[in-house]
Design goal:
alpha+beta; 6-stranded antiparallel beta sheet; 26 strands; 18 helices
Length: about 625
């Protein structure tokens, strides 16, 4: 969430931490899922080799919430992620035997139904669990009230849409901590911040209280590093050729200590890699200002986090925090017409040109039909030839003997997209040579869902924690005194004379990169492979240069922000309005900005000294 801090209010109502047991010096938390669709093999891996005390599983995103809404509208017993149950059901007896506790947001928009199904599965296997349900994040019952209040979108200022179909708050760790204190062995929540799934066990086991802001930041960092599963153990790693055994990547484990330091590790014998590069990339994944990362439990400062490779994994320390804001972020989704995508393979000389000619011919025919039927033009059209390097901008080669047409359109009227889809097949006999297949056949329109984010007072969104035994308690978010707002200076001056030379490097030769989405913005984290390289990287990667490199992606005057991350010798960039509407609304082939890091990695840095000269000059 790209927000500035609001701050420190005097703590008047904090989660009570039980004194019935001695708090531990450390706790081992493994993550078995980074998204809805992750491999179920993670659970046995952690169970039989991880020596974990907790398994946390993250499933939710904005698009997932919308899909779950659609599922529940057809069947009131649906609305949760079935993958959660499928992944743990075969292992319930072993989970019980080892005394491992489970925390997940797989309850989606119907955590009660998820728990009922889980209870049934456990009963069939002859085991019993104390299961807690966390509810209260759903704001749909207040839709009319919010519409009357003229709530505005927090980034664009747009008015509250009338077609909202989901609306959920990002709860923090507090409700989960309460569930654990009530004796829950399994906690199933609705929408909650990914990092809270790990922060809550750390708070419970280590005795941390909500006003210990540095510890809240440290626990949130642990959750952030492991929440995407294998992304910190080699998945999506810049140096992917050095990652062994992708078929059995090790899922991450955070061993969090009392002082907030942690070891990021994995089960022995698993594939993947643990390095400052792989873990550091994940640190900056989907982060805006690293010095002001706003979460429900804390405003975290990750800018001076440090890492060190050890025999057991990667040691991480240095997170700082300050009081959280008095509001929850609410993610709502709403229907805005329909979209459809056509994917066609072309082969032979000038394949990219063939694809573009066919796309243009289909558009012309369709628009003539629209004109006769008084149908408005498309709301949006995206034509891109995959294989022609168009993702890298207008200056790159477009000549290829094999290319794939990505042809996507958006329209308010479903009928308009059906007309467009019927015109595609004609290219098979009335088009250019070399058309081999339309992937998936005739495109079918699907609802175009868009994201609407806003803030809502925590004081108006209490959570309810209910055990399957019937016990129920209310969680009220604590309040804190306001603190001084702190954000990174985007225009730090570095008066340093740099060496020059006759070497040219790609950015990837000097740095690790990873990119991710935040709504319609994309962030790109850049970490120097050696501290001595950072001044040269910083000099080359000004906001202006990065903006120019992505000029074909950025729309509507979107700005580029640059943040310093000195702890890991890095920089973090945020590119506004760069994803064509963002994950659930975009009709681009990369709606989540996953390739932006790779695109930036191809940027050439010229007239540099050799790597050895850079290092020698810095020592």
């Amino acid at each position: 969430m790209f927000l500035s801090g609001i701050g420190r209010r005097k703590c008047r109502d904090v989660v009570a931490i039980s004194k019935r047991f001695k708090h531990k010096e450390s706790v081992r938390i493994g993550c078995s899922s980074g998204f809805w669709g992750d491999t179920p093999t993670a659970v046995p891996q952690l169970l039989y080799g991880g020596k974990v005390e907790y398994i946390v599983a993250d499933y939710l995103s904005e698009v997932t919430m919308s899909l779950l809404v659609a599922a529940r509208s057809k069947n009131p017993q649906l609305g949760f992620t079935p993958d959660f149950l499928e992944s743990i059901a075969p292992h319930l007896k072993e989970i019980k035997r080892q005394g491992i506790r489970i925390v997940t947001n797989g309850g989606g928009i119907n955590p009660k139904a998820c728990v009922e199904m889980l209870q049934s599965l456990a009963k069939k296997q002859g085991v019993e669990f104390q299961i807690a349900t966390v509810t209260g994040d759903d704001l749909m019952p207040k839709r009319e009230e919010l519409m009357s209040a003229q709530v505005k979108e927090m980034f664009s200022g747009k008015a509250f849409p009338s077609s909202v179909n989901s609306m959920n708050a990002y709860y923090g760790a507090g409700p989960i901590v309460k569930a654990l204190e009530m004796g829950a062995e399994i906690v199933v929540t609705g929408r909650s911040t990914d990092s809270a799934l790990a922060l809550a066990p750390a708070m419970h086991e280590l005795g941390w209280s909500p006003e210990q802001f540095d510890q809240m930041a440290a626990g949130s960092l642990a959750g952030h590093l492991i929440e995407c599963g294998c992304q910190c153990t080699g998945g999506n790693f810049t140096d992917w050729t050095k990652v062994p055994d992708f078929d059995k990547l090790g899922f991450p484990i955070a061993e969090v200590r009392q002082d907030g330091s942690m070891l990021i590790t994995k089960a022995p014998g698993t594939g993947g890699i643990l390095s400052v590069g792989s873990v550091g990339e994940q640190l900056l994944y989907e982060v805006g200002d690293p010095a002001a990362y706003v979460l429900p439990d804390v405003i975290a400062d990750f800018s001076n986090v440090q890492m060190k490779e050890t025999e057991g994994g990667v040691e991480v320390w240095g997170a700082k925090g300050r009081a959280p804001t008095p509001t929850y972020k609410i993610s709502a989704t709403y229907l805005d017409g329909f979209k459809a995508t056509c994917v066609v393979n072309f082969c032979g000389g000038d394949s990219a040109a063939k694809g573009r000619v066919m796309a243009e011919s289909i558009l012309k025919r369709t628009r003539r039909i629209f004109s006769k039927l008084n149908i408005p033009d498309f709301d949006s059209v995206h034509v891109q030839m995959l294989g022609a390097e168009e993702s890298f901008g207008p200056d790159h080669s477009k000549h290829t003997r094999e290319a794939v047409l990505w042809f996507a359109v958006q329209h308010k009227d479903k009928k308009a997209l059906q007309i467009w889809a019927k015109e595609i097949a004609a290219c098979g006999t009335g088009g250019t040579p070399g058309i081999t297949a339309v992937v998936g056949g005739r495109p079918k329109p699907s609802p175009c869902l868009k994201l609407f984010s806003f803030l809502h007072p925590k004081s108006q969104m209490d959570a309810t924690v209910t055990l399957d035994s019937g016990a129920s308690e209310t969680y009220k978010a604590p309040e804190f005194e306001a603190s001084e707002e702190k954000t990174s200076d985007e225009n730090v001056s570095h008066d340093q004379t740099l060496l020059t030379g006759d070497h040219t490097y790609r950015l990837e030769d000097l740095a690790y990169m990873r990119s991710g989405d935040k709504g319609n913005s994309c962030n790109v984290g850049v970490i120097a492979r050696h501290p001595a390289f950072l001044p040269y990287i910083r000099s080359a990667l000004s906001q202006q240069n990065v903006g120019h490199h992505f000029r074909h992606m950025i729309q509507d005057g979107g700005k580029v922000h640059r943040y310093e991350v000195p702890g890991i010798h890095g920089l973090n960039f945020v590119l506004e309005s760069s994803l064509g509407g963002g994950g659930i609304a975009s009709i681009r082939p990369d709606p989540l900005g996953k390739a932006f890091g790779q695109i930036l990695g191809e940027l050439k840095l010229e007239n540099l000294p050799s790597k050895e000269q850079m290092i020698n000059a810095a020592t």
